[in-house]
Amino acid sequence: MDERVEALTEQEGWQAEGFAARVHYQGGADYYSIEYYAPSECVVYWKVKGDGETAVPVGRDTVPDPLRKRIRQDLAEASIDPEVESRSL
User: Fold this and answer.
1) What are the residue boundaries of the structural domains of the chain, listed by start?
2) pTM, whole model, 2 decimals?
3) Does residue 52 carry a pLDDT above 90?
């Protein structure tokens, strides 16, 4: 497991999946899955439909600011540059 992914799993809710780490959040009626990919050092936001089975990638500008702030905090606490959260794919 990549050391950056391992460090993220020490943050609340994060789970490792190979070279990626994933966390799930609910904001109001919206559900999000957030993934950090170590090889490309990027964060991808997915909006999860009510069935919990279907997810679509969404642009950062559609993600609530408090959630983005939380992700940047988690990255920083895992010694990952929080600026990777805003990198374009």
Assistant:
1) 3-86
2) 0.90
3) no
